[in-house]
Amino acid sequence: MAHDFGLHVSQPEVDEGQQNYEQTSGVSVGLAETELADGPYAADWDELSFTLGWRSAVSGWIMQAPLVRGSPYVTAEFNGATPRISSPQQLRQHNGQAWISVDGVHNPCDGYTELSGRVFAVDLLEHD
């Protein structure tokens, strides 16, 4: 789901007794920028993909999210913007500490330490 403040993606859980999807369960992640941006806009598309974009009047595209049909991955590209990653799920803990990988290096995630890099990866618990 795309909003003016970013992108929210989730993997719904199927209720076997019902014929519907529960949108409030499953893995859920929000990707956004902290700057004030306009969007979402259709930044690009082809036969198998569609790229959503949020832009700044000053610096152009500051966040783009390519959505690829059938891909289990979600990517957001930030240009001159501060990423915000959110989820109702907890980070999986290793040795009693939550970690976030930045450019392949594991860093403790305490909610206060500023991390910067090019590639961020999180390991979420698979349930609420």
Broad shape: globular
Strand order in space, largest sheet: 1-2-5-10
Number of strands: 14
Radius of gyration based on Cα positions: 16 Å
User: Unreliable stretches, pLDDT < 50, 5 or more residues?
Assistant: none
For the largest beta-sheet, the strand count, sense and barrel status come to: 4 strands, antiparallel
Helix/strand order, N-terminal first: EEEEEEEEEEEEEE
Question: Between the first and last Cα atoms, what is the distance in angstroms?
Answer: 20 Å
Overall pLDDT metric: 81
Number of helices: 0
Secondary structure class reads: mainly beta
Strand content: over 45%
Helix content: under 10%
Can you describe this structure?
- The chain is mostly beta strands.
- It contains no helices and 14 strands.
- The chain has strands at residues 2-3, 6-10, 13-14, 21-22, 28-33, 38-45, 49-56, 60-68, 77-78, 83-86, 93-94, 97-102, 105-108, 120-122.
- Strands 1-2-5-10 form a 4-stranded antiparallel sheet, with no helix packed on it. A 4-stranded antiparallel sheet has the order 6-7-8-9, with no helix packed on it. Strands 11, 12, 13 and 14 form a 4-stranded antiparallel sheet that branches.
- The radius of gyration is 16 Å and the shape is globular.
- The mean pLDDT is 81.
